Amino acid sequence: MKNIPAILSAFLLCLPWLLPAASKPNVIYILADDLGYGDLSCYGQKKLKTPHIDRLASEGLKFTAHYSGNTVCTPSRAVLMTGMHSGRCYVRGNLRGERGAALDPKMTVLPEVFKAAGYRTGAFGKWGLGNTHLKGAPNPLSHGFDVFYGWKSQGIAHTYYPTTYVHNGRELPLKKGTYLHAPMMEQARAFIRGSVQAKQPFFCYIPTAIPHAAMHAPKALHEKWRKVFPQFDKKIGKYGAGGEPCPDVVNPIAGFAAMMEHLDNEIGALLKLLDELGVDNNTLVMFSSDNGAHKEGGHDPSFWNSSGNLRGHKRDMHEGGIRAPMLARWPGVIAPGSTTAHLSGFQDLLPTVCELTGQPVPPQNTGISFASTLRGEAGKQRAHEYLYFEFCKGPKQVIASQAVRMGNWKAFRAAGKPMEIFDLKADPFEKNDLAARQPELVLKMKAIIKKARVPLPK
After folding, report:
1. Which helix (H) or strand (E) holds 220?
2. pTM (2 d.p.)
3. Where would you tag: which of 116, 138, 332, 383 has the fewest CB atoms within 10 A of its CB?
4. Is the dihedral angle over the CA atoms 124, 127, 133, 139 positive or is it negative?
5. 190 φ, ψ to 5°?
C-alpha cells in the first residue's frame, strides 16, 4: 500500500501521452493537387525545400506505398470521400463540366462520419465534386460540412485569381488581384480557432489547388525564385479557367517553386497554431496528393523530377501517376521519424476515420483502416490482397487504362493493348515488362480485374 502514491504519480505523468490515443483526435487532412511523389524534399526533391511539410515526416510517419484514388482529380476525390476504390466508384475520370461529379446523397461519406461522431467540419479549397454555389444542388454543405470556403467549380480552380469565391453556398465577389489561396488558409485557421474555443473536436479538410494548373504564386515569392532560375525568364506559362482571369506566368519554373514555398509556409502557420491553441498532441495531421505530377501551365515535371524517377505522370496508371506522398503526424501516438511500406490507398481513409472516431463503416466501403499503422501496431494491421485502379475518359467514361498492385507485383493494361507485368521490388521504375515470363501471373491479374470492377451504370 505504501507504493500507491508513487504508482499514482507515475500514472499521472504518463496521462498526457495516453489521452490522445484514448480520446477522439482532431483531424486535419491536406490534399495537394497534382503534387508528384518526388515534389517534397522529404521524398527526395533536391531543387527546393519544404521544411514545414517535412516536419510531418520527421515528427511523424512517412508512407512509401500509398496510392491516390485515381490518376486525375474528380475520381480520386470521389474515392477519398466514399471509401470505394476506382473499380467500384461512380466516376472514374474527369468529366466535362460539373455534371455527374456530385456524390450520391444516399451514401454516408467522410465528413458525415465526423458529423455523426460530434465533430465540427470544414472544407477549404477545391471541392472537385460538382459546383459549390448552386441552390438546391449537391455541394459540400449537403454532404456533412458545416463550413465551406473556396472555388465555385473545378474549372475555375485552375486560376488563383478568380473574380468570385464561395462561402457556405454563397458566391461572393473577390477583390481584384487577390490570391485566393491566402484568404482560404486564413479561413481554415479561423475555423480551427473557433472549434477549439467551442471545445468541439474538428475535421478540417484542405483540398488546396497547389500546385495544379497555372503556376500562380504570390508576387514576392515569385520574384524571389525568378532570381534563382533566371534562365527560364523567356518561358511563358499559359492556362485557361473557363472565362475567369488566368494571367500568363513569366517563368513558370519560378512560379512552381514559389507556389510550393507558399504552401509550405501556410502549413508551418497551421502547425504553429495547433501548438498555440494547446491541441497539438490531440490533432492528427495528414498530407497527400490527388494524383501524379502534371505537365500543364508551363510546369516542367522533368526539370523537378516530380515523379521521383517513377514512370509516368498524371493521367497515367504507371507509378508516377498514382503513387502519392502520404505523411501523418500525431504527437504522442505516431512515433516520430517512422516509415511504413504498408500498402494503402485513398479508400482506406474512410474506415480509418471510422475506427478513430468509433463510428460504423459505411456499407459501400472497400478500404481497410490503417489506424494500427498510425499507432505503430504493425502486427495488428490488416493487409490488402491487392489494390485496383481504373481510369476512364470522355463523356461516356470509356476505360483508358487499368492497374493492379498485389504485393510487389504490378499489372498495367492500356486499352486495346496486352497486359504488362512488373516486379516493383526489383524494378521500381517499371522498365522491364515480365508478362511473357509470367503467364500464370497475367491470368491471375486478369481474374483480379474481373473480380474487382463493377461496370459503370449506362
Report:
1. helix 219-228
2. 0.94
3. 383
4. negative
5. -65, -40
**Cell numbers at 261, concatenated:** 514555398
Among 37, 40, 38, 61, smallest CA distance to 52 is for 40
CA 304, CA 294: separation in Å to the nearest integer? 12
Other C-beta atoms lying within 10 Å of the C-beta of residue 189: 18
- Residue 34 CA to residue 288 CA, distance in Å, equals 10
CATH class of 24-384: alpha beta
> Are β-strands 147-150 and 409-414 bridged in parallel, bridged antiparallel, or unpaired?
unpaired
Domain ranges of the chain: 24-384
d(CA 361, CA 16): 29
CB 81 within 8 A of CB 69: no
Q: Taken in order 90, 93, 96, 97, is the CA torsion positive or negative? A: positive
Burial of 269 (0-12, 13-18, 19+ CB in 10 A): middle
pLDDT digits (tens, 9 = 90+) for 80-135: 999 999 999 999 999 877 778 999 999 999 999 999 999 999 999 999 999 999 98
